[in-house]
Amino acid sequence: MEGVLTRLRGVEESDAPLLHAWDNDPEIRAALDVVFPVTISSTTEYIREITGSRDGVLFIVSDRETEAPIGFTTLYDIDWIARKAEFGIIIGDKRYWSRGYGTDAALATLSFAFEDLGLHRVYLSTYSYHPRAIRVCEKCGFVREGVMRKARYHHGAYHDVVLMGILYDEFAAHRGRPP
Predict the structure, then answer these.
(1) Whole-number average pLDDT of the chain
(2) Which of 22, 113, 114 is nearest to 75 (CA)?
(3) No. of H helices and E strands in the chain?
(4) Parallel, antiparallel, or unpaired: how do β-strands 84-91 and 121-127 relate?
(5) Between 20 and 30 A from 60 (CA), which of 66, 71, 104, 165?
(6) Which residues fall within 8 angstroms of residue 18, CB to CB, at 6 or more apart?
(7) What secondary structure letter does DSSP report for 108?
(8) DSSP of 148-168, one letter per residue?
(9) Given pLDDT bands bounded at 50, 70 and 90, which one contains residue 178?
(10) φ, ψ for residue 154, nearest 5 deg
(11) Three-state SS for 10?
């Protein structure tokens, strides 16, 4: 799967050191539900768990031009009856932040979710102190569905958790396609 700037491929166990490094970067970890440092064995186990399951998919995001891995996206907790999944994205290589790569990779993942998997709804949660993530989601067509007030404790303060979602017809309309 490709976007304009990015290419997505399945994650391999050999990608574990890269994901491990990103998961342990304090600035990146603040955007995740990861509080404590992660071991390489737990990262490898996570990759095995997702790739060996029908309930999730994990992609490495690469720069389309250089093929350099720059992050990952995931669809997890896939509910095949309700046709919904939770979405996550990390651009781990900070040189690619605020340059459109996250939006491009998110759109490619959403295209896979809706067009290839036939999902009806994709959703996520992020934090009020992470405006870059909120902007990327809004650029992709996600709408704010709610806020869990003061539900995240981070760096000595409580923060809101922002709930966002997108439906298939909203994504199709956002992309200029008939639903």
Answers:
(1) 92
(2) 113
(3) 6, 7
(4) parallel
(5) 165
(6) 60, 69, 92
(7) H
(8) EEEEEEETTEEEEEEEEEEEH
(9) low
(10) -150, 125
(11) strand
Tokens at 170, concatenated = 């909203």
How does pLDDT run across 110-145, given as a tens digit for each residue? 999 999 999 999 999 999 988 889 999 999 999 999
The string of pLDDT tens digits covering residues 52-79 is 889 999 999 999 999 999 999 999 999 9
At 145 the three-state DSSP class reads: strand
Predicted local distance difference test score (pLDDT) of residue 155: 82
CB 83 within 8 A of CB 35: no
Q: Which among 78, 86, 69 has a CA at the least distance from the CA of 142?
A: 86
DSSP state of 2: B
pLDDT at residue 130, as a whole number: 86
The encoded tokens of residue 175 equal 């992309």
- Which residues neighbour 162 within 8 Å (Cβ) at sequence distance 6 or greater? 125, 126, 127, 128, 134, 144, 147
Domains in the chain with CATH codes: 6-174 (3.40.630.30)
CA atoms of 155 and 142, how far apart (whole Å):
27
Average pLDDT estimate for 83-102: 94
